[in-house]
Amino acid sequence: MKRVVGLWIDHRKAVVVAIVGEGKEIVLTMKSHMEPHVRFAGGSRSKGPHQSLEVTPEDQRDRRFEDHLSAYYDEVISNIREAEAILLFGPGEAKGELKKRLEIKGLGRRIVGVETVDKMTDRQIAAKVRERFLEWSAPMWLMASRSTTRQTV
How far apart are CA 139 and CA 144, in angstroms? Predict the structure, then answer.
């Protein structure tokens, strides 16, 4: 069964819109449950010879952020892995980070586009995905009757 996916993503939320088979639309929302990441300019590292052995609170916070982000991306990938075509879009760095991760996992050839867009409502996201894949495969989608299923994780 044919499955195409559009994914709006930032570091806090991902909205997956899958179009399956003859046009059934499934919308899945995933939240990362992450706090905003604060990056510190400069630092207060020691100038001593064992400088590289010291772990600052900022380093620990960055590591926790990266670990949490990694788990979030793995969850997103588990929900789009079966797609034949993937459209990535969103406002920040997350779409590019996810693209790299998809390429590492051997799914990079399925990516049909990466776009920068602002915040969007779930309906706007679904409309963008329908528009893209209608254009991509018009005859199948024009004849299909659509139904929508929504789920939040």
Answer: 9
